[in-house]
Every structure is written in C-alpha cells, then in structure tokens.
Design brief:
The chain has 114 residues and is mainly α. The chain contains four helices and no strands. The protein has one domain: Orthogonal Bundle (Cytochrome Bc1 Complex, Chain D, domain 2), CATH 1.10.760. Bound molecules: heme C. Heme C binds next to helix 3.
Length: 114
C-alpha cells in the first residue's frame, strides 16, 4: 500500500501533476455555472480552451482550480484569478471593464467546474 501511494506520488511529480479530473459536463452545470459558461464564451474563448487541455493564445483553463498553481506559478485561488481577469497579465488584456460583478462571480463558478 505504502509503495503504491509512493509510486502514485512519483508519477504525479514526474507528470507535473497534470492528471486532474475532467471538467463537469455542460449538461450538469447549475444556473450560475451555465451563465458563467456564457460569459466565458463571450470574453475568454478566443484565447483559452475550456474543455480541451491544449493552449490557444493563452494556457488552457482545464483544471485551472483543481491544480495547486496557475500557469504563472501563482496559487490557484479566486483572488489571483480575479486579479488576472480584471487587470490582465502580460499578453492578456484586462477584462475588468467588459463585465459586471455578477458576470465575474458566475465566470469564477464556471472555472471551478473545469
Ligand atoms: C486576447 C487573449 C486573451 C483573452 C481574451 C483572455 N486571456 Fe487569459 N491569458 C491570455 C494569455 C496570453 C495568458 C498568459 C499570461 C502570462 O502569464 O504571460 C493568460 C493567462 C490567464 C490565466 C492564468 C494567469 C496566471 O497567473 O497564470 C487565467 C486564469 C486567465 N488567463 C483567465 C482568463 C479568463 C477567465 C478570460 C476571460 C474573462 C481570459 N483569460 C481572457 C490571453 C487571454
């Protein structure tokens, strides 16, 4: 047992812990998450994949809150993600003035299902 969990941990470290559970199917989202998906479609989909673990203009959002760190190495929490969305980051333009607080809330709820 101990040996098995050690191997699992080692595999995780070697693979960069990329194996996260798949996103929740769209048909299983609640109302808030469904609206968050619409916000994502309107503001983020041009640069980020949400259902496929492959980069587009920016990193994929699959598992964004299931991993410990954001692609930049910042802790993966609402505060850091919100700062990126509102203020932008390097090549990512600020999105703060494109959505209201409710949209942002719903968007975060959706990102947590990925
Ligand atoms: C014009 C393209 C573009 C759009 C639109 C865009 N992003 Fe990004 N995003 C990027 C790029 C490029 C990066 C990588 C920034 C870096 O760290 O250099 C990024 C990084 C991120 C990160 C990771 C930040 C980190 O600390 O690693 C998150 C989270 C993110 N974007 C979420 C979103 C969300 C949510 C939206 C929609 C509201 C969005 N982005 C819209 C291009 C975009």
């Amino acid at each position: 047992m101990i040996r098995a969990s050690f191997l699992l941990l080692l595999a995780c470290v070697l693979a960069g812990c990329k194996s996260v559970p798949p996103p929740t199917p769209l048909s299983e989202l609640n109302a808030q998450q469904t609206h968050g998906h619409a916000v994502f479609q309107a503001h983020c989909v041009a640069c980020h994949n949400d259902r496929r673990d492959a980069p587009l203009n920016g990193p994929s959002m699959v598992g964004v809150f299931k991993k410990q760190y954001l692609p930049s190495g910042m802790p993966a929490n609402d505060e850091r993600a919100t700062a990126t969305i509102v203020h932008g980051r390097n090549m990512m333009p600020a999105q703060g003035n494109t959505m209201d607080a409710q949209d942002l809330d719903d968007l975060l709820a959706y990102l947590h299902t990925l």
